[in-house]
Every structure is written in structure tokens, then in C-alpha cells.
Prior knowledge:
alpha/beta; three-stranded antiparallel β-sheet; 11 helices; 17 strands; binds iron/sulfur cluster
Amino acid sequence: MARLFEARFYEARPDGSVVCTLCPHDCHIPEGGRGACGVRYNRGGRLYTLVYDRVIAREVNPIEKKPFFHFLPGSYAYSISTVGCSLRCAYCQNWEISQWPKEHLPKHVASGAADRAVCPRLEALQGEVPGEYVTPETIVAAALASGCQSVSYTFTEPTIFYELAYDTAVLARERGLKNNFVTNGYINPEPLREIATVLDAANVDLKFFSEESYRRVSRARLAPILEAIRLYHALGVWVEVTTLVVPGLNDSEAELTAIAEFICSVSPAIPWHVSRFYPAWHMLDRPITEVSSLRRAREIGLKAGLKYVYEGNIPGEGGENTYCPRCRHLLIERYGFHVRQNRIRDGRCPDCGETIDGVGMSGTGPAA
Ligand code: SF4
């Protein structure tokens, strides 16, 4: 039985409109309208989430797929998402589900001029949103039954299904599971502070180091994302950062250096994943990222002072391995999403004793 769920983090206005304060868009939503994510809806001066019980994807993934390389390496994450996203990145790799509400919304709802004759009840509107009826209890039980060590809120933007993520994360933690966000970082400080109380890790996309690029390509702003990265880290959430390196868009030495230096200013222990771009959705006119370009990005990250930089989406090239930042010996050998060997013992390099940053980093068995 589907359940109507009032959204959190909004302000009601006397004229019946609401301001959603969940993410930095701070959408001003008139009666009958939805926010920019397409899944938060003003009905009668109250804001509702349309996706609390509408899970579009749930599956077991290696944690390395998120990617997390310094958070329970070699483990599995029960991975869930709903449709919707706060951003509209032209090259989104998951656009079929992230942009679903914006691609399928009735125009009268998108504009806020809801036609009560067409959408007379919130339940009917919610029924338009695709997804399986799943509760936090179902998700946590399935995660435990499948042997996962964490629940991952991923594929689209977890901030826009905040209420489901939060309730699930509370329950998951009670049952001994960890929680992680794979996020675009577009979240306001207050909800971030609250989700951080039940979040163990966040992989934040840092797509550009340019306000203009964020505005033009993703319809967002850079500054709040930098602030979110700082805040997650300051609150003790384990942070990793991912940058999809897009030829001709964000692959200049200056921009990659600026990204690396920013991450380093937060902490040199934050792993940086520089990943290969594949043409997708509205960005089909650019080539796949050259391996040499990722290698150069990795060198830029290491030169900036980062301890761990990884080349993503190019299995078998060696850029996915973890090396000791002091003695440079191989610690974790990976192929794609799979860990072939993990030599870390008691959180340290077995060769020089250096502490290796992360959560649950140690392997099992003899240090090969
Ligand atoms: S969560 Fe959705 S409705 Fe709320 S401010 Fe962000 S885009 Fe707008």
C-alpha cells in the first residue's frame, strides 16, 4: 500500500507556495507544482515527496563500483535509488532514471499550473512515478540477507530521496550495516548535518572547478558543492571524490590542478577518482577519454599532494591499485570492481608500517 509522505526541509508561504530548502536550488514551488528534481510536490501548501516508497533500482554491487576504494574494500553494498535528480548534466550516464520525472512530467505540473481535473489527488500523481513499493524495512532485510556490509544510496541523487534514505540509514545502522551516499554534493548544510549522523561515507562528484561550466552543463552552482565536501569531511563522514574527465570540457591542466588542490586543502587523504567519460544523453559529440589523459590527471593529483588518486573505468591498466603513500609498495590490487589481493593489515602497510587512510581497510589472510 503506497504511503503519502510529507517532505522535510521546506517553508510554507502565506500564498500557498512553498520553498524547498533541501538543496541549494531552494525551489519556490507554487501550489500544484514540483521542484526542479521533479519528485517534490506542493499540494495545498505542503510539500510531499513522491518517491518515498518508489524504488526504481535495488541491487547488490561491489563497493568498488560506487566507487569507494578506501571504504570496506572487497565488500558488497546493497544499492538503491529512486527516479529524479537535482541536476541535469548533459552527459548523465544514468539519465533514463535520473531525468525520468523531467522527461515525463505533464507540462501543466512542471509549470506549477496543476490541473485539478487531471491530477485530482496526490495519490494519482504519485502513481505516475515508476518504482517498486519498498519500505526501509524491506531494504535493510534484503541487504542483510544478501551479505552486504553497507547500504548505498546511489545511481541517481540520494538527496532528492532524502526521507527514504534517512529512514533506511537509521534502520541499517541499528542492524549493524554502514551507509554511504554517492552524491552530486548538491545539498544544503542543515539536511547534510542530519544525514551525516547516520552516514559513514560519501563519494561526491566534483565535475568542474568553474561556476560557468556547472551552470551551463549541469544547471547547478559550484560553491555549495565545495562547501558540502568540506562539511561532510568536517563531520567525520569518510569522503572520496570523483571527477569524470571529459575531453575539451574539464581536462585542462589548470582545471584538474584546481580540483586536486581543493581536495588536498580539505585533506590529502581524500581519494580522488579520475574517471573515463563515455558519450551519453545530450553529449554525444565528444570522444571517449584517452587513457593518457587519465594518467596525466592522476599525476596532477599526486603532484598536488593527494595520497591516493585512481584512474576509473579503465580496468587492467593498473590505475585502480592502491599503493602505500610512503614506500609506494602495492597494497590493494584491483581489476575493475574486483579486489584481487589486499595486503593491508591492521590498517597499515605491511612493509613500512604506514597507516592507510580509510574505513575497514584491512584484508584477510596472509599479506601476500
Ligand atoms: S530537492 Fe528538489 S525541490 Fe528541493 S530544492 Fe532541490 S531540486 Fe528543488
